[in-house]
Amino acid sequence: MEENLEKKLSYKKINGWETTDTRQKETIFNFTKDYMNFLNKAKTEREFITEAIKMARENGYKDIAEYETLEPGNKVYFVNREKSMYLGIIGTEDIEKGLHIIGSHVDSPRLDLKPNPLYEDTDMAYLKTHYYGGIKKYQWTTIPLSIHGVIVKPNGEKVTINIGEDEDDPIFTITDLLPHLAQEQMEKKLKDGIEGENLNVLIGNMPYPDENAKEKVKLNILNILNQKYGIIEADLQSSELEIIPAFKARSLGFDSSMVAAYGQDDKVCAYTSLAAMMTLENIKNTAICILSDKEEIGSMGNTGMESHMFDFFISEILNKLGINKPNLLDKVFCFSKMLSSDVDAGFDPIYSQVSDKLNAGFIGKGISLNKYTGARGKSGASDANAEYVAWIRNVLEKNDIKYQIAELGKVDIGGGGTIAYILANKGADVIDCGVPVLSMHAPYEVTSKFDIYSAYETYKAFWRE
Q1: What is the pLDDT of residues 107-123, one digit of tens each?
Q2: Which of 129, 136, 187, 369 is a good FRET partner for 91, with 20 to 30 A between their CA atoms?
């Protein structure tokens, strides 16, 4: 019998660290150190876009409005309302043959302040919240929280808020019952143990020294905010303030092989695609990087992928290339290729019952491709055709990039989705391609440094193809 026939014919996922030498590990660790530093500065979608603009301009990108005409090699970007961004490099190939697009999202599950959030109860001041995206509510209690965002006054003045990240800042928290008094709470189903209306953030206990004031603690908070930011309570009605974990991104494990951080869904793919784009020069197909907003709540709104702002950006590119043909935008999309760079659910052996082990994404085994997502009978899925999956496999294999093809949990257990269907609906070939994550949507998510670097290498290879 032929020796090594099993090795020749069988498919096996391999721990990527087994194939990396000392120099490669050093490269991976250096790259992910930069990633963690970026995450600590870019916890919200607005902060991510601010840092992305800095990175882009440092690498020769200009706002598309700065160009009258475009030609191969030009590097452009467009910022949509400070919360989403599109970048592009004009390739040498006729743009009518399609774009190479990588699209991720920069919003993450969190708590948003309600329009009228501030109240006092029994000499304690609180902020009321409305959770954003899919969270397990109990995970957001008794952890250190910070406040990020903007307050915009009626005169247009914008005040940027970031409290709780600096070591000298105060932090905030959401309280929970002590076990001694939680008998009724602990009889409830896990999803009902903490109610959404009770995700109220504790922010103060000191009264303002005014005997005539009805709510002295609330007044003291308002006075602090007025003294520091020049705002009044009504200004909170025109604000976007997010309550997010005050945790720093850290290396995880005795071997420091993993990253623990808030918001890695989907900033891990957004950062790696952005960093990959910064390396590109002299490419064939015009390369596009999408950093979208609102994915966690369905991609709706004018900063989400369902809006026409992305179409506007591509139309601007076509106009400034001097191309004016009927149905050109539709044609460009129909011949485009895309990686929907969103995270995958990493296999967790503690909760193995929700996964099909043969078809799960494992941390440390490379980039994860999801041919389809959706729920139950692939409902709502963008299902990549076999020809496109084979094309992607060829790109990865000839660049010696470790990858795994997976799906999101067992059939009928649940499911999920990404922005893949939106570009697929425009006619592009699309497949989900991202980093496996443990504890997805939790305040502290876990990824493998090997997979993070694999994503970076994947995105570079895709754009250079």
Answers
A1: 999 999 999 999 999 99
A2: 369
